[in-house]
UniProtKB/TrEMBL annotation:
Family: Belongs to the universal ribosomal protein uL22 family.
Organism: Terrimicrobium sacchariphilum
Keywords associated with the record: Ribonucleoprotein, Ribosomal protein, RNA-binding, rRNA-binding
Identification of the protein by name: Large ribosomal subunit protein uL22
InterPro entries for the chain: Ribosomal_uL22, Ribosomal_uL22_bac/chlpt-type, Ribosomal_uL22_bac/org-type, Ribosomal_uL22_sf
Job of this protein: This protein binds specifically to 23S rRNA; its binding is stimulated by other ribosomal proteins, e.g., L4, L17, and L20. It is important during the early stages of 50S assembly. It makes multiple contacts with different domains of the 23S rRNA in the assembled 50S subunit and ribosome. The globular domain of the protein is located near the polypeptide exit tunnel on the outside of the subunit, while an extended beta-hairpin is found that lines the wall of the exit tunnel in the center of the 70S ribosome.
Subunit details: Part of the 50S ribosomal subunit.
Region (Disordered): 116-161
Amino acid sequence: MQVKSIYRNARISAFKAREVTREIQGLPATDALDLLRFVPKKAAELIFKTLSSAVANAENNNNLNVANLVVQEAVVGEGPTFKRFQPKARGSAGPIRKRTSHIRIVLTDEVEIKRREDKAAKKSKKPAAKKAGAKKKTTAAAKSAATETVAPETTATETKE
């Protein structure tokens, strides 16, 4: 089941907020909340509030388990722009655009939870498979080294006899 939470007219530009939402997409909701607590940006606080609202909606309205929730999508769209003017030299005026945005977060419990540690483990296994040819060379070198080490031992035992 999907659960949505929308924060409308947030006083931050969509460009700045998108930078933070890219980080939490696809993460489990609890991991995303932990991540947002330590991001030193204004957008992180606004997205944290929206995400915690979505988690509360899922828990209280739909009786879903918080541990199974995943951030399916975190989207930031542009809201209305407040137009102001700054006085400039010689009686002219320069425009100032105060941008706003709409933050939408969708949680779901239908997607399998994939943690970042699992992805890192999979990436570390892939290069090992590519180096299989290199391993064969090292094993051949190890065999030749093993035969070299065996030969001096036998000669040492022969001299002792």
